[in-house]
Backbone:
């Protein structure tokens, strides 16, 4: 439940852009067995995302200056809701990205986006939910000007909740072990 409180300006430059961690985390809703809970009027999520045994999340690098995450309000009076959206550009057209796009374009996902605000933790927001996921629309460019793929995820249905602030643990990422092995080799 929303508790009324004053909303002052937090600091000088409070409206300045906040850089994003370039690695967004994609959780497939088909792998989620439990997700955090929340109450209306409170954007803080309680609990962790839990994935099926053996399931992993996918970390995707997006050029930091291209990352946009937010929501749009829509609907008639007494039926307004919020559609979450996340987007950014991945440089190049490597086979791993193209395989991801082809294999996931019709799969629902939840995306975790972390701010790089200078603090050790930063704020992580969760976009989408198991019951109201985001879906991918890719736009590749391979021209004299650029070789990149714009990835845009959006919800199909407006829901009652804004993106939530997630302070739980990040699920294991696909390839995390092999990446660490490569670094130590």
Residues:
């Amino acid at each position: 439940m929303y508790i009324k409180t004053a909303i002052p300006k937090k600091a000088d430059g409070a409206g300045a852009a906040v850089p994003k961690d370039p690695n967004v985390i994609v959780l497939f809703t088909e792998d989620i067995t439990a997700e955090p809970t929340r109450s209306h009027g409170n954007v803080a999520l309680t609990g962790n995302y839990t994935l099926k045994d053996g399931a992993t999340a996918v970390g995707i690098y997006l050029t930091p200056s291209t990352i946009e995450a937010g929501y749009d309000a829509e609907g008639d009076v007494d039926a307004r809701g919020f559609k979450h959206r996340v987007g950014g550009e991945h440089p190049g057209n490597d086979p791993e990205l193209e395989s991801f796009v082809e294999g996931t374009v019709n799969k629902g996902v939840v995306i975790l986006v972390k701010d790089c605000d200078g603090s050790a933790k930063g704020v992580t927001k969760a976009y989408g939910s198991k019951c109201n996921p985001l879906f991918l629309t890719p736009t590749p460019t391979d021209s004299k000007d650029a070789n990149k793929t714009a990835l845009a995820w959006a919800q199909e249905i407006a829901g009652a909740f804004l993106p939530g602030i997630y302070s739980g643990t990040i699920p294991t990422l696909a390839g995390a072990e092999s990446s660490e092995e490569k670094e130590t080799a």
Remarks:
- The chain has a mean pLDDT of 90.
- The two ends are 52 Å apart (CA to CA).
